[in-house]
Structures are given as C-alpha cells and as structure tokens.
Design brief:
By secondary structure, the protein is α/β, with parallel strands linked by helices. Helices cover 43% and strands 10% of the residues. Strands 1-2-3-4-5-6-7-8 form an eight-stranded parallel sheet, with no helix packed on it. Helix 1 packs across helix 2, helix 2 packs across helix 3 and helix 8 runs parallel beside helix 9.
C-alpha cells in the first residue's frame, strides 16, 4: 500500500499534467472543453486501481480527479477510504463515477447526514449510466437516520451487486427502510456486521432472505440477534432459492 506522501505525489503529478490543459483559452463551451482537456491529460497517469486511502485531498484535488474519471473507461477500483471527505468532496466526486466498478469510502465520517445525499445527487449528473458494482461504506458513522439516504445512493447505482455497511449503527429501523428497497434490487451481497441489529432486525432480514431473488451472501456477524432473530433468518433460508452463504458467527 502506498504511503500518504506517494498518494499526494500522484495528485501533484496529475495536477501538473493538467495545468496546461486547464488554462487553455475559453471558447463558447469553456467549461465543458476545460473538463475534457483536464480528463484527457490525466489519462496518461491514472491507473486502473487507484488507491488514495489515508490521504488528505482538497475539494480542488477531487474535482481534478473527477474530471479525469469522467473521461476514463479503464478505472476499475477507486479507494478513498479514511480521507476525511465531507459533502463538498462527494459533490465534486460524483460526476466522475460513471465508469468506476468498485468504490471504497471506508471510514469517511463525512458521509453521515449530507454526504450521502450529495453523492447521490452528483452521480445523477454523470454523462453515462453508472457501472458501479461494489460500494464500501463501512465504519462511516451511519445510523438509522441515514437509511433513506443510503437508499438514495443505492438507487443511482443500478448495477450494484455488493453493498458493504459493516460497522455502522443501522439498527432494526434502518434495516427495515433499507430492506424495503433491497427486496426488489439486484444486489447479491450485503454486509451488516456490527450494526447493533436485534431480534426485530433478524425478523426483517428473514423476510428479505425469503423474498429477494438475487441475494447470495449475507453477513450479520457481531450483532445481538438473539435466538429468535437467528431463527427467523434461518426460516427465510428455507424458502430462499438464491442464498448461498449466511454468516452468523459471534452473534
């Protein structure tokens, strides 16, 4: 894993590669032309797997990165975990996520409240339909009050297959709101480890297992589901034609 200094150096390299393009004379479509030139210049240095985790990025850095991603179809994974991002960063990032397949935002507390909504609204402005298949928003301080915003984000990623929500505090209320949408989604893997889920949540998840035709993997380790919650989930497994793995250890 690259050091923070190396990650910051990548951004500086990208900025130097795009400085000339960004300063080109304006014309009748100056904003669109500038973004295209910035993105085109950065294609020479942006890798298929871009790990910028544990680094501090300014909003301007993210805008530059987004401009490159917007015109790049080869970026497979983008890791911005633990980068202290807030709503402004997510608003700047969203428009460039059209081609990214895997997005890691682990440990960004700024997703709480306005962050998720900003990300969702920005993704809607993408010029291409999102190709995202995996979203990692583990340990982001999300609670049951953020569940509607999580649904907003999931909705703008129609090809999402893998949703990682470990280490948040969704509780039964949050899971209930989330399950209402997920039951008709194409998501195949859901990770809810350490979300303070009780027996009520177990009952909700049991119904999701039973009725979600695409769900293959569900992880609920580290939750106080109690025997009744586990029993409800196992009952759902009996009626599921898709579920392949259910992780209940340490509950």
């Amino acid at each position: 894993q690259r050091s923070q200094l190396e990650k910051r150096a990548w951004i500086k390299l990208a900025l130097s590669c795009t400085a000339e393009a960004a300063q080109q004379p304006a014309n009748h479509s100056s904003s669109e032309t500038r973004h295209f030139n910035v993105g085109k210049a950065m294609l020479a240095v942006i890798p298929a797997t871009l790990d910028l985790s544990h680094s501090r990025q300014t909003v301007s850095d993210i805008q530059t990165l987004s401009a490159a991603l917007e015109h790049s179809s080869h970026v497979f994974l983008l890791n911005l975990s633990e980068c202290v991002l807030d709503a402004r960063h997510f608003q700047a990032l969203g428009a460039g996520l059209g081609y990214v397949k895997k997005l890691l935002l682990y440990g960004n507390i700024g997703l709480h409240e306005e962050g998720l909504s900003s990300l969702a609204s920005a993704v809607k402005s993408c010029q291409v339909s999102s190709q995202l298949e995996m979203l990692n928003i583990r340990w982001c301080g999300l609670t049951e009050h953020d569940s509607s915003s999580i649904v907003q984000v999931v909705r703008v990623f129609p090809k999402l297959r893998d949703l990682k929500l470990d280490g948040n505090t969704l509780r039964a209320r949050g899971v209930d709101q989330l399950a209402g949408y997920l039951i008709s989604s194409t998501i195949e893997e859901i990770y809810l480890e350490d979300n303070n889920l009780d027996c009520e949540a177990g009952s909700i998840l049991g119904k999701l297992i039973c009725n979600q035709p695409n769900l293959k993997k569900l992880d609920v380790r580290g939750n106080p589901l109690l025997n009744s919650g586990v029993a409800d989930m196992l009952e759902g497994v009996k009626h599921s034609d898709s579920l392949e793995k259910l992780f209940l250890n340490n509950t």
